[in-house]
Amino acid sequence: MSLGLEVRDLQVRFGDFTAVHALSLSLAPGESFGLVGESGSGKSTVLRAICGLVPATARSAGMIRLRGEGELPEPGSKAFRRRVQMVFQDPYGSLHPRQTVDRMLAEPLAIHGLDRPEQRIAATLDAVGLGAGFRFRYPHQLSGGQRQRVAIARALILEPEILLLDEPTSALDASVQAEVLNLLESLRRQRALSFLMVSHDLAVVTHLCERLMVMRQGREVETLAAADLAAARVGQDYTRELMAASRGFRRDAAR
To answer: Which is the CATH superfamily of the domain at 4-248?
Structure first.
């Protein structure tokens, strides 16, 4: 069973600077939802607030809760982190340079006390298109695309229901980007995952997401269906400007 997510009136402050202003969004079970906007619009801060990675020096407020049947874990708890995992932008910086792929995948299994680690690691590597030959390699022995597949495998190893994707392909070459996006979409269908994805690239978001929120300076500009964005059926001038600037959209389509 997949889970959904609800965020209400989220605010994140760093000293006197407010990075996110009273933001609300909902992610339906099994849905893929995108957050788009220029650099500094607060997109990644939203993901970090959801998974409890906002620095201790920041102040946050608002409500974050999972949506689904049965007893649901509290945000920030160990049980919450098992069900909500994050894939970061930089596949090299997010992997420990002195740990093998095997150790990186075994560690979360040990922390959460899951059984059959050998079988889980082998199955997860197969799921992301990496065979047993990659298991004892180090990050520096992998290409950028392979490192990001390892990062995805690390997020999947706990069998979560929700993945938070922070620009998961922006550090990759264009040809590798397509491979990783297709992998993510395939995994979502196979595992009934819910995605909350951050990107500055509207073409990527319309490929992977069903709905999206446009953000600017920590605030919502508008929320719309990805199909409406692709057809230039938007309501705000800022969204049109973003379309004109984004790779993959024709400038005349934004008029």
So the answer is: P-loop containing nucleotide triphosphate hydrolases (3.40.50.300)
Angle between helices 144-156 and 117-127 (to 10 degrees): 130
pLDDT in tens, 51-70: 988 888 899 999 999 987 66
163 DSSP assignment = E
Alpha-carbon span 247 to 75, nearest angstrom: 35
**What is the value of pTM for the model shown?**
0.91
d(CA 43, CA 185): 21
The answer to whether the beta carbons of residues 107 and 40 sit under 8 Å apart is no
Helices and strands in the chain: count of H runs, count of E runs: 9, 9
- In angstroms, the Cα distances linking 225 to 88, 165, 252 are 25, 19, 20
Compute how many other C-beta atoms are within 10 angstroms of the C-beta atom of residue 247: 10
Please name which of 240, 219, 235 lies closest in space to residue 45, comparing C-alpha atoms.
219
Q: What is the C-alpha separation between 140 and 219, in angstroms, rounded?
A: 38
Q: Which are the contacts of 103, defined by CB distance < 8 A and separation ≥ 6?
A: 96
Please state the domain extents for the chain. 4-248
Return phi, psi of residue 84, to 5°: -130, 115
